[in-house]
Design brief:
heterodimer, A: mainly alpha, 7 helices, B: mainly alpha, 3 helices, 76% helix
Chain lengths: 177, 101
């Protein structure tokens, strides 16, 4: 009898890689965007499997929700006037070379992952500050919030500055000049 | 039976490579943008896997920060693409070879 967690891992792995391939294979940009939304949802399920509830929900709400709606909005706005198909490649063999380089990259990464040093279990956080202890006593979202507003308060504040700059940048670029 | 961390890293590596290949073979800037999002998400998966296996919340914190940076990047990048499209009437990265407006 196969372990249900193992089964879920393999189903999610195949589904997320297949939908990621869909992003770069579909000719139509709207289909690519929908495929990317699917990939993001599968990754959110991975996060749930790894016990990161808050990140999984944020992934669905912000990534698959807000960011991808922005993407689809721009894609549909530009697609009505743009050509349907891309012109033929100007660099011959571009596709073949890129695919070969991709296979080499994934081969090298896998090789390094399997031959590299394994995780030092001595470095594992333990005691009152460890994730599993806080999750067991207070819950996952509370563990995240405690870390965010205690150890990571300064990066969190810098994030708000970044968002203000991005909003101003989008306004400046979007203005009709 | 617990799933070894390297399996998650392999899935992450495969999705990252799909993103890299997408940037190399596609010439629609919107799809190149989506491929960059794929790469960011592949890295996020490694962060969450390490967070789980090292029993620390730091990985989740990094994912949260990457998410905000991705949102800011998409907002500014799409604004640039729309403004290029307004002046050029055409979106193909091979045609965008000057930095002047």
């Amino acid at each position: 009898m196969i372990d249900p967690q193992l089964l879920a891992f393999f189903v999610l792995a195949v589904a997320s890689v297949a939908s990621a391939l869909g992003v770069i294979i579909f000719r139509n940009a709207v289909h690519s965007a929908l495929s990317l939304i699917l990939t993001l949802l599968f990754l959110a399920l991975f996060y749930l499997q790894l016990g990161a509830m808050f990140i999984a929900v944020v992934q669905i709400l912000i990534y698959a929700g807000a960011i991808m709606v922005l993407f689809l909005f721009v894609v549909t706005m530009l697609a009505s006037e743009a050509r349907d198909t891309e012109l033929p490649d100007r660099i011959p063999w571009q596709r073949g070379i890129a695919s070969t380089l991709g296979f080499i990259l994934v081969g090298v990464l896998s090789y390094l992952l399997f031959t590299g040093a394994s995780i030092d279990t001595g470095a594992k956080a333990s005691g009152a500050n460890s994730l599993s202890h806080v999750v067991a006593t207070q819950g996952d979202t509370q563990a995240f919030g405690l870390a965010l507003f205690h150890g990571f308060a300064f990066p969190f504040e810098v994030t708000s500055l970044l968002i203000v700059v991005a909003i101003l940048g989008a306004m400046v670029l979007g203005r009709r000049g | 039976m617990s799933i070894p961390v390297s399996w998650y890293l392999i899935v992450s590596a495969i999705i990252f490579t799909v993103g890299v290949t997408g940037v190399l073979i596609r010439r629609n800037p919107l799809i190149i943008f989506m491929s960059i999002e794929l790469m960011l998400n592949a890295v996020n998966l490694s962060f969450i896997a390490f967070s789980h296996y090292l029993n620390s919340v730091d990985g989740q914190m990094f994912v949260f920060l990457v998410l905000t940076v991705a949102a800011a990047e998409v907002v500014v990048g799409l604004a640039i693409i729309v403004s290029i499209f307004r002046t050029r009437r055409d979106i193909d990265v091979d045609d965008m070879n000057v930095l002047r407006g």
